Amino acid sequence: MSGDQVDVSSGKLQNLTLNEEVEESVFFQTYSRLETHMDLLKDTARTMAYRDAIEQNRQLFEGKVVLDVGCGMGILSLFAAKAGASKVIGVENADIAALASQIVKDNGKENVVNVVQGLIEEVELPDGIQQVDIIVSEWMGNALYMEGMLHSVLFARDKWLRPGGLVLPNVANLWIAGACDPHRSLNNDFWNNVEGFDMSSVKIQVSHEAVVDCVASQNVLTSDYLVHTTRLESAPNTPIKFRSMFELEVLRTGIIHSMILYFDVAFLGGQTETPVTLSTSPHAPWTHWEQTVLHLDNPLYVQAKERIIGGFGMFPSSENSRCMNFELGIRSKGAKGQASQFKYFNSSQKL
Ligand SMILES: C[S@@+](CC[C@H](N)C(=O)[O-])C[C@H]1O[C@@H](n2cnc3c(N)ncnc32)[C@H](O)[C@@H]1O
């Protein structure tokens, strides 16, 4: 789906081709599966960050109207109800909404939580509600912006959030760092001989794919650099397109095979001294997002204290606006002289 066919601020999908409609339907079918939600709920770093953020900001939730954008099985709505919200509306387009309603009843919260099935861009809120005090949502995708769900949250903010209202999480940061991959050449050589067949022609295509993988903390060789921030209470609802320069310090001598992307989000509430954050850094506890890995064609042989300078860009894919493409340029000045490289990456995965 091209970025031009989605007017993100109105939330309208315009002139979708059959293919694009199928992609949207596959997206919500994935979220209709219990297994998908079980994986999310079992991601304790994720789920507990939301729980703690809501519990620690109880005073902000008491007596308030809360909108949960993409409520899934209703966990964030239930947290908000438990924290004293007077009304919670959980909006969910996937068929899992029916289970969410049941779960709300099973937990005796049906007088507070109302699950509405439909697209946030199309639903009316129940009981004539025109304004909400707080929006909560777990919208983040791989490399933060995959899945494009941020636009649905910002759409809801622009339509229903009262002036001065709260969006949780309210800050999202995307980071880049350099890492080594001890299995890189093994993985690359795999294509040379697959059960006796030469599949090496796919190597070029594979090398342009951004890969979601778990990067061990000890394989990160550089400092990290903040390449993009979204402040959810004020960011304009426009397509995510940016380029950022970055500068990394090499912390340990070694070989950098890839640049890695990860994000964190912060729940900045009222009076809590230490706001809750949820980080997907390799140095933080594991999450289902893991890290997004951009493999370099030419590994960098680096020594501690060297600096790597580069540029990173991110743009919606022209084939599917829920996917993002990346560009990466790197210049390093090391013992083996100066090396520059530039590369595009695409991400075909939807989740
Ligand atoms: C990552 S899941 C989070 C589910 C739940 N809030 C949780 O934390 O476990 C995102 C949910 O948002 C729903 N969703 C995405 N875009 C939506 C939209 N535009 N309107 C309604 N629901 C949407 C998806 O179907 C999915 O269930």
Automatic annotation (TrEMBL):
Ranges of residues in domain Protein arginine N-methyltransferase: 172-329
Entry coiled-coil feature ranges: none
GO biological process: methylation
Annotated GO CC locations: nucleus
InterPro entries listed in its UniProt record: Arg_MeTrfase, PRMT_dom, SAM-dependent_MTases_sf
Molecular-function annotations in GO: histone methyltransferase activity; protein-arginine omega-N asymmetric methyltransferase activity; protein-arginine omega-N monomethyltransferase activity
Catalytic function, reaction form: L-arginyl-[protein] + S-adenosyl-L-methionine = N(omega)-methyl-L-arginyl-[protein] + S-adenosyl-L-homocysteine + H(+)
Enzyme class of the recorded protein, top EC level: transferase
UniProt-listed Enzyme Commission number(s): 2.1.1.319
Keywords of this entry: Methyltransferase, S-adenosyl-L-methionine, Transferase
Protein name: type I protein arginine methyltransferase
Species in which this protein is naturally found: Drosophila persimilis (Fruit fly)
